[in-house]
């Protein structure tokens, strides 16, 4: 049965009506038109749909709507847009760290969660944060470079 | 003397099929080459801006639209810069000349007195000026290209050759950008229930029960094609699950016993042909060597599931697809629906990376069938399971190599025998319909008769002819027409296995001759550009001849020129072997002729190496008697971030030379470099891919 929920997304409150078990990814993309969150597998194995729930990276394809209600949700649109990108988005653009780009927004969200709790992550910490992400184009090298760059920038250190 | 016009321009000679000047002082270029994540749209804009002398920001791009653009076949085979880029360059050079001629007659001056700067045409040193946009009303582009205008000399390039940032990434990294994000007015969401196996027959299905589920707008059943359309996406997903529960299938064990590929392929029905033979008088051989190599079936495994949209209104059908070939797809959809081509439009929209012929085109037919059947615009998306299990795979292959070596350690005889299925079962190739849903309709459409593309550039036999100067060569192709699994084009086609085999075998021959692998290759290679990339990679990697391994670390080198006609690439792999192989560092040297976008080239080479590392170390499609088992990321694991190597790319500067396609050149060399590094580390030769811990243990005996 359809129920009404209030979702707190990117600083705003949104009323949505859907089945409680509906995966969050569909509500974000279709009801809220936040298309930057990508569907990849539906089982939480590829990370393309990653968003932040109270600052923690979660896979929105296996997060039911009911469990997301009442929490602070952040999507890629909540970090920045094409005109005013977040330092992570900017670092990915600066390093041209994308090929097809489909996996990148989920990866940026996991990196954002990492940088929120760890100001100067080590390489193993960055890699561990990407444990639930897949990239098929083989952009791994640049992705790691971009995250390192953003980490330095956010920590106020000179950029490499 | 002008060069003959590029083939893609000859096929699409009207200039207005390629270029249009807009009232807002921009110019739109239409290309048949579409964005697959390789950066081609940016590179094409660079080429057009360069030849037209307009600022890059003024160039808008509209690729892959059958209603307006040129038919350039498929975006495939590392041909977009070589062929599509050559055509765009010729078109823009000719357009530029037409406008210069018009300006010259307006100002009554010679063309040589005119300059163009950002689209403004000026009589040099005066204030008499006009522009493309002012003259657009009087210069018609509804003419056939003559191919006589001479493009700019590369020495004058200011935009081509620069690492311009990709123009599509800002949108992709912040919001809607892909076909999956398309919204059409009144659109429904659709899913397709595929049979559980290739040959499964539908023996029972309660369509009414599925239609009664919440939000369901239509349930379409035709033969064993079942589609569900619903108002909300999650309703379509639930309807798919509901349909799966009530569909009853008859499955038969039609797949072959899953034995080793080296045993399987030679058992299947095949036709044999000689690809190339060069039988110079044989020099006396001292030793003979022989080895057999194999690669498994590989999945494209796109991260985004295949997706398409379609709208049927007023007897006309529009389909949005991440296809690699809008025109061939249009023809196939029109054929299945019994419509004239002219009533069908296919518009390209970016998807996730495809790496060849994945499910993109199939999804387009799914959308077309469902839009026609349910009377509403449809957005259809595949499941992860179907993306892995129903997309075509890259063919498994077996390569048997034999060589005769003389007393001085020179290879004097070389024989390359290969077994492969077709690598070109794209929609539009051959006599049939190569779209999944078409085979499931009642009555079904037949797929094309199995055949492979002729050599050169070949498909299964791509890169089967070695670039080395062996006096006696014979290349034999056993084309395995019997195909237990669905196969088609995967990045680099047969080159991956052929280069893996040739370059592994070269390493084995070098070891037998007690010669360093770099020196052994150079000794058999006259082509100076081939030698240059090998030397550049070895030098960057600080390669030292006869360097011993410490028993866990090893390094190997491999080389190929893709298709023996496109980019040259040499790769040095440095690995560490514990319980498994880890590629620690890869160093590549590439010669792609004159490079349009150096950072774009680096990105392609880096990605090619990392993707091929994943194929080489981890990937194989498995099956049982009934079904393909690669249905999830757990059943088909790919390289993870904790397995990322360092990658360094050296670009050998060939400014002024024609551009050479480079998107696929790294795959084969990467595989062989890793296998050769394994030999260097442990002294064992693994000849069957992937190089999993089990395979390495097997090779160690």
Based on the model shown, name its key terms.
heterodimer; A: 160 residues; alpha+beta; Ubiquitin-like (UB roll); DNA polymerase, domain 1; 2 domains; 5-stranded mixed sheet; 7 helices; B: 701 residues; Aldehyde Oxidoreductase, domain 4; 3 domains
Describe, in plain words, how this protein is organized in 3D.
- The complex is a heterodimer of chains A (160) and B (701).
- Chain A has helices at residues 24-31, 65-68, 76-79, 87-94, 104-117, 123-129, 140-154, and strands spanning 3-9, 12-18, 50-53, 56-59, 72-74.
- Chain A is α+β, with helices and mostly antiparallel strands and 160 residues long.
- Chain A has two domains: 3-79, Ubiquitin-like (UB roll) (Roll), CATH 3.10.20; 87-154, [2Fe-2S]-binding domain (DNA polymerase, domain 1), CATH 1.10.150.
- In chain A, helix 5 (104-117) packs parallel to helix 7.
- In chain A, 55% of the residues are buried.
- With 701 residues, chain B is an alpha+beta fold.
- Chain B has three domains: 7-172, Aldehyde oxidase/xanthine dehydrogenase, molybdopterin binding domain (Aldehyde Oxidoreductase, domain 4, 2-Layer Sandwich), CATH 3.30.365; 179-251 and 301-389, 2-Layer Sandwich (Aldehyde Oxidoreductase, domain 4); 393-423 and 459-700, Aldehyde Oxidoreductase, domain 4, CATH 3.30.365.10.
- Chain B contains 18 helices and 26 strands.
- In chain B, the strands form seven sheets. Chain B has a seven-stranded mixed sheet, sandwiched between helices.
- In chain B, helix 16 links the parallel strand 25 and strand 26 (646-651).
- The mean pLDDT of chain B is 97.
- The chains are: A alpha+beta (160), B alpha+beta (701).
- Chains A and B meet through helix 1, helix 4, helix 5 and helix 7 of A and helix 5, helix 7 and helix 16 of B.
Provide a compact summary of the structure.
Chain A is of the alpha+beta class and 160 residues long.
Strand content of chain B: 15-25%
The CATH superfamily of the largest domain in chain A is known as Beta-grasp domain
CATH domain fold name of the largest domain in chain B: Aldehyde Oxidoreductase, domain 4
Considering DSSP H and I runs of 4 or more, what fraction of the residues of chain A is helical? 25-40%
Query: Which runs of chain A of at least 5 residues are low in confidence (pLDDT < 50)?
Result: none
The CATH architecture classification of the largest domain in chain A is Roll
Q: Give the tally of β-strands of chain A.
A: 5
The spatial strand order of the largest sheet of chain B comes to: 9-10-7-18-15-16-17
Number of helices of chain A: 7
CATH class of the largest domain in chain B: Alpha Beta
Helix content estimate of chain B: 25-40%
How many structural domains of chain A? 2
Query: What is the name of the CATH superfamily of the largest domain in chain B?
Result: Aldehyde oxidase/xanthine dehydrogenase, molybdopterin binding domain
Shape of chain A: globular
The computed structural class of chain A is alpha+beta
């Amino acid at each position: 049965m359809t129920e009404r929920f209030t979702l707190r997304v990117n600083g705003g409150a949104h009323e949505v009506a859907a089945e409680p078990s509906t995966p969050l990814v569909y509500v974000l993309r279709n009801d809220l038109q936040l298309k930057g969150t990508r569907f990849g597998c539906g089982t939480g194995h590829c990370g393309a749909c990653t968003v932040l729930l109270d600052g923690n990276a979660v896979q929105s394809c296996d997060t039911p709507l009911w469990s997301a209600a009442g929490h602070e949700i952040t999507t890629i649109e909540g970090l920045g847009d094409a005109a005013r990108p977040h330092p992570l988005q900017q670092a990915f653009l600066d390093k041209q760290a994308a090929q097809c780009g489909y996996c990148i927004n989920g990866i940026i969200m996991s990196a954002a969660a990492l940088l929120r709790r760890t100001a100067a992550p080590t390489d193993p910490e960055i890699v561990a944060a990407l444990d639930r992400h897949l990239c098929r184009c083989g952009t791994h090298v640049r992705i790691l470079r971009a995250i390192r760059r953003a980490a330095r920038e956010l920590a106020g250190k000179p950029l490499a | 003397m002008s060069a003959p016009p590029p083939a893609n321009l000859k096929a699409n000679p009207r200039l207005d099929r390629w270029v249009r000047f807009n009232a807002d002082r921009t110019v739109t270029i239409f290309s048949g080459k579409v964005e697959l994540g390789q950066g081609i749209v940016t590179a094409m804009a660079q080429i057009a801006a360069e030849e037209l002398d307009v600022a890059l920001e003024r160039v808008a791009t509209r690729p892959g639209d059958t209603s307006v653009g040129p038919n350039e076949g498929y975006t495939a085979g590392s041909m977009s810069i070589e062929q599509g880029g050559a055509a765009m360059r010729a078109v823009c050079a000719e357009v530029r000349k037409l406008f210069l001629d018009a300006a010259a007659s307006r100002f009554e001056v010679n063309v040589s007195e005119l300059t163009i700067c950002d689209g403004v045409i000026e009589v040099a040193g005066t204030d008499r000026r006009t522009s493309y946009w002012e003259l657009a009303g009087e210069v018609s582009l509804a003419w056939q290209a003559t191919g006589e205008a001479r493009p700019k000399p590369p020495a004058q390039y200011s935009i081509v050759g620069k690492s311009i940032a990709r123009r599509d990434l800002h949108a992709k990294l912040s919001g809607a950008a892909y076909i999956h994000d398309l919204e059409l007015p009144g659109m429904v969401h659709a899913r397709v229930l595929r049979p559980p196996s290739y040959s499964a027959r539908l023996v029972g299905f309660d369509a009414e029960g599925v239609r009664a589920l919440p939000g369901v707008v239509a349930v379409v059943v035709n033969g064993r094609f079942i589609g569900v359309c619903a108002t909300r996406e999650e309703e379509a997903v639930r309807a798919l699950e509901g349909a799966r529960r009530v569909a009853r299938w008859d499955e038969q064990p039609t797949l072959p016993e899953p034995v080793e590929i080296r045993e399987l392929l030679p058992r299947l029905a095949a036709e044999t042909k000689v690809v190339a033979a060069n039988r110079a008088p044989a020099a006396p051989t001292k030793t003979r060597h022989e080895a057999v190599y194999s690669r498994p079936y590989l999945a494209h495994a796109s991260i985004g599931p295949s997706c398409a949209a379609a709208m049927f209104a007023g007897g006309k059908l529009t389909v949005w697809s991440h296809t690699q070939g809008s025109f061939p797809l249009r023809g196939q959809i029109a054929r299945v629906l019994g419509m004239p081509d002219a009533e069908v439009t296919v518009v390209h929209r970016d998807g996730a990376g495809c790496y060849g012929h994945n499910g993109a085109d199939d999804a387009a037919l799914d959308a077309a069938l469902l839009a026609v059947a349910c009377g509403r615009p449809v957005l259809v998306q595949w499941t992860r399971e179907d993306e892995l299990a129903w997309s075509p795979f890259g063919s498994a292959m077996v390569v048997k190599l034999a060589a005769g070596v003389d007393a001085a350690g020179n290879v004097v005889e070389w024989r390359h025998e290969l077994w492969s299925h077709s690598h070109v079962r794209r929609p539009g190739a051959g006599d049939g319909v190569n779209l999944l849903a078409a085979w499931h309709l009642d009555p079904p459409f037949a797929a094309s008769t199995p055949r492979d593309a002729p050599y050169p550039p070949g498909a299964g036999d791509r890169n089967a002819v070695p670039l080395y100067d062996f006096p006696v060569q014979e290349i034999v192709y056993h084309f395995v027409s019997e195909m237990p699994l669905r196969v088609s084009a995967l990045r680099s086609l047969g080159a991956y296995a052929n280069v893996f085999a040739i370059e592994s075998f070269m390493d084995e021959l070098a070891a037998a001759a007690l010669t360093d692998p770099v020196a052994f290759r150079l000794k058999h290679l006259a082509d100076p550009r081939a030698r240059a990339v090998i030397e550049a990679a070895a030098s960057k990697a600080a390669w030292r001849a006869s360097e011993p391994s410490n028993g866990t670390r090893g390094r190997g080198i491999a080389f190929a020129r893709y298709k023996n006609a496109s980019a040259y690439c040499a790769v040095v792999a440095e690995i560490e072997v514990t319980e498994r192989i880890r590629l620690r560092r890869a160093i590549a040297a590439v010669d792609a002729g004159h490079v349009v976008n150096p950072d774009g080239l680096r990105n392609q080479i880096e990605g090619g190496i990392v993707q091929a590392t994943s194929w080489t170390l981890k990937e194989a499609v498995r099956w049982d008697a009934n079904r393909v088992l690669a249905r999830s990321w757990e059943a088909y694991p790919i390289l993870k971030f904790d397995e990322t190597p360092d990658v360094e790319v050296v670009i050998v500067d060939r400014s002024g030379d024609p551009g050479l396609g480079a998107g696929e050149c790294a795959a084969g060399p990467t595989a062989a470099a890793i296998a050769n590094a394994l030999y260097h580390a442990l002294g064992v030769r693994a000849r069957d891919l992937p190089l999993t811990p089990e395979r390495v243990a097997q090779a160690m005996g």
